[in-house]
């Protein structure tokens, strides 16, 4: 009781300090990144803060004319909707239909080319803000207390620096943990911290540790070539002085990492890295009446929820028929988010929806399993509600996310390009009938809920902390001021090695000198004796 | 409001789960370690847990016949009170009166001898528990849910392992962070993490980084010689199988580190390391009437609080007179905890006390400065209340603690053996009259208070978490399963080096072969031409 009371008093104290509310500028993002961000921003508005979101004129998911409790700061970008859509489609097509039939080298080269070719889009979006005088004038006049950004969308760090305001980042992961390691100085020993998207776990044998070391190295080379070289040039041009984008990102006061130890493998962290995985999760609300009726009609068998996420709406007719056949063989009722043509093999137990209230369905007591593409948002909703998963990962972090869930015993994965009616059906039956999957999902759910604060409350606390204190410098390690060789004490080790070699050299020379003297005396004596 | 409510609901949920209370076994400790532990144990009793403390028959600070809300489990040790007191006095005398006049090598050797000679005491205390059949029988029958220990007092890990119960450690620091690094796998790059007791800060130039690397190495060698070799032998004898004490300590579920970023320099941490510095701090209570009158008589000048801690009660007459002279020259009233003979030079502004309510005095609005030996408990009370300090550090972590406070601009240090009336007086005047010291103390106080949970609540949460979940395995990094060379990927790097060398060798041999073939053809052609 005392514990609860004192926490409440503490938070009351903090809330009181913030009673006037702060002014938060939010950097634009896209797709699941934006979906994930919204509930946190809603909470910030609830707590009396003014939230202003930068919205590009071309976006797949952001819309500045949508009624909202946020203020919008729209800006023009020289990219058409069709071009943007085409880019996303090309990337998704590569991951869904090409990658599985390539060797690792081809994958790496193709991915490298895809990223490199599309990097200009990043700059066109960034132009819309930092090269636009009216926008920058407005932002300066806005007197914001903080800039909040997902660093996957470049430029938040540059803008925060120009405006001279604190920066809070929110990030699920970067390829090979490149941003966290190189810019945030987060230690990630490759022996037990698998690189994000490496599909490795924290339990690695020699060959896996070797792969992980190479994966880190390759990602660092790729990021240097794709991102840092070009973006440093761009930032330097804007600032009029040599500027390192990674150093600017390193100035962030707080990194809100959207993972936790229910999903991620435990690893070293830093005081300004807060692990708030599941930041968007919330209790389930009642379902629409028609949907609730369908769910209740499942009886004891229960339901299966199926969605391939916000980016993939349709699959090929052949694939859709194969999936529908598998679902038709399940004793459960199935709710499938699918906006393509109705598959011919669709069973009477399966209903198609253009959109489903995914979180409310996952939190429904009748839900037995979740068939998912393995996006982090969906996985976290399943963890929150303790639902075992069947993963059909396709792109980005999805395959890696499913590796995490499989390693923790809460999921089975099937490969999109190689799955059959039987393998999909068997996978769903497995996670429903083998009790260990539900037990492990419930164990992860317990870990998720049993922490001192909910992830969203923790994120809100540190955002408000940064505003109250105009930064969070006392949480930043001194490593940011060191070069890479100083960080690893290589200069010290080199110095000690030189001293060692010098001592050995002196010892050798001394011994050699003594030996010569001895020999010379001996020869002298022997010679005299002979004479 | 929503934030506060949801935190309350979360904690209510956790509290409800613990409504029956757990059974906590507390390992014995001594001096400030025991003083620090008590308020946390009181809170655990308040929350309905049964707390049983192992108390040795010989102790300077623990007393099993003292009325208390804890249960005591007394055990016999074959050490007399006089012997124990003598050991502490010898150590304190070395630090207070000898060390300042020795070179670093002499200090190291003397300290090494002191520790080595006194290690048998550790085993005699440990004998009293693990070699005592009646005690071990009682502990086994006690069905404890958790063992709580300060690992500076060896054996808690062994006993938890024998009893098969989870282990929570509470630790301020170990010399050169040896326990945290070697057993807890806490990353501590020597380039920006100064070894505990090294008197370095996190801002180090080349020579300081060199010192830190050597300091870490020397501490590791010393700990291996003093502690690990002998204790591994002892543990192996008890367990009847080769046992590594460091590995047993590494099994701890949670490490409650009694520091935070108000006091310590920010550094890498691990998910099962919780930084709860100031765990014992609490708001000030009203002073005894006579003391309050004296404090009020100080007027606007205010008061200075002076204590050399629980271990040092008296100093030499000469030193006492020198200190009293300095205090007499202050415009403030001074409350000095001192049980020696009244110094001749004692001013009318100074009163001596056998004991002072230190926390209540530090929290008094009239308090202007705190003259302290630099113990972590006292420093945390000063941080809690935002009081600038003058340090007269003497032994253990005290000099290092004061380096931290000086680096953060909240203290001035004077050297016990070299201070004069003037230097002590000037130091006190400095921290009172130069506003930056008070401002920095208040800044640290703000950092201390402005966190999601109070340190004691956080410690209680993780102790209860460990009991509820019978451990906290999901927070433990996989590094515990790696050898040191695997951890640092040295086997992987060696493999890559060999592959590189092989490739170079093959390349060299191929070139050499081609070159020879070319030369041979050339010679052949030339020869034929000549012929």
From TrEMBL, chains A, B:
One of its GO terms (cellular component) is membrane. It holds the Pfam family UDPGT. It is an enzyme of class 2 (transferase). Its EC number is 2.4.1.17. It catalyses: glucuronate acceptor + UDP-alpha-D-glucuronate = acceptor beta-D-glucuronoside + UDP + H(+). This is UDP-glucuronosyltransferase. It is a single-pass membrane protein. Its main location: membrane. Residues 1-21 form the signal peptide. The chain crosses the membrane at residues 484-508. Keywords: Glycosyltransferase, Membrane, Signal, Transferase, Transmembrane, Transmembrane helix. Belongs to the UDP-glycosyltransferase family. Gene3D superfamilies: Glycogen Phosphorylase B. It is found in: Membrane. One of its GO terms (molecular function) is glucuronosyltransferase activity.
């Amino acid at each position: 009781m005392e514990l609860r009371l004192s926490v409440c008093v503490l938070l009351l104290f903090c809330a009181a300090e913030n009673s006037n509310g702060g002014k938060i500028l939010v950097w634009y993002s896209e797709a699941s990144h934006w979906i994930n961000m919204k509930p946190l921003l809603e909470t910030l508005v609830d707590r009396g803060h003014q939230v202003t979101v930068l919205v590009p004129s071309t976006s797949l998911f952001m819309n500045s004319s949508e009624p909202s409790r946020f203020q919008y700061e729209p800006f023009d970008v020289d990219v058409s909707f069709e071009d943007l859509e085409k880019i996303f489609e090309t990337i998704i097509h590569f991951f869904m239909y090409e990658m599985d039939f390539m060797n690792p080298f081809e994958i790496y080269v193709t991915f490298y080319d895809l990223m490199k070719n599309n990097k200009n889009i990043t700059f066109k979006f960034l132009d819309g803000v930092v090269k636009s005088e009216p926008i920058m004038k407005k932002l300066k006049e806005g007197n914001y207390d903080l800039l909040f950004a997902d660093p996957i969308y470049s430029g938040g760090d540059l803008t925060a620096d120009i405006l001279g305001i604190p920066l809070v980042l929110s990030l699920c992961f970067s390829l090979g943990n490149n941003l966290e390691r190189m810019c945030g100085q987060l230690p990630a020993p490759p022996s037990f911290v698998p690189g994000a998207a490496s599909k490795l776990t924290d339990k690695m044998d020699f060959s896996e540790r070797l792969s992980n070391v190479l994966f880190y190295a390759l990602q660092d080379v790729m990021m240097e070539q794709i991102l840092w070289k070009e973006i440093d040039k761009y930032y330097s041009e804007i600032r009029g002085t040599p500027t390192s984008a990674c150093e600017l990102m390193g100035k962030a006061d707080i990194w809100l990492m959207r993972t936790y130890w229910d999903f991620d493998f435990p690893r070293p962290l830093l005081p300004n890295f807060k692990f708030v995985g599941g930041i968007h999760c919330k209790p389930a609300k009642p379902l629409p009446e028609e949907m609730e009726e369908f769910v209740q009609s499942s009886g004891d068998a229960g339901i299966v929820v199926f969605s391939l996420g916000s980016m993939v709406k349709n699959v090929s007719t052949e694939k859709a028929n194969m999936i529908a056949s598998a679902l038709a063989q399940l004793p459960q009722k199935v709710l499938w988010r699918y906006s393509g043509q109705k598959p011919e093999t669709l069973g009477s137990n399966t209903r198609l929806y253009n959109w489903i209230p995914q979180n409310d369905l996952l939190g429904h007591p009748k839900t037995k399993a979740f068939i998912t593409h393995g996006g982090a948002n969906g996985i976290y909703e399943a963890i929150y509600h303790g639902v075992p998963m069947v993963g059909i990962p396709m792109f980005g972090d999805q395959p890696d996310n499913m590796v995490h869930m499989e390693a923790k015993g809460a999921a089975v994965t099937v490969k999109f390009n190689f799955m059959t009616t039987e393998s999909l059906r068997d996978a769903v039956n497995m996670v429903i009938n083998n009790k260990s999957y539900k037990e492990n999902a419930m164990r992860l759910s317990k870990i998720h809920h049993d922490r001192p604060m909910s992830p969203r409350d923790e994120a809100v606390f540190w955002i408000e902390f940064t505003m109250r204190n105009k930064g969070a410098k006392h949480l930043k390690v001194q490593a940011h001021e060191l070069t890479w060789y100083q960080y690893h004490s290589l200069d010290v080790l080199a110095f000690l090695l030189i001293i060692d070699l010098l001592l050995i050299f002196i010892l050798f020379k001394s011994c050699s000198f003594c030996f010569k003297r001895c020999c010379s005396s001996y020869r002298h004596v022997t010679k005299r004796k002979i004479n």
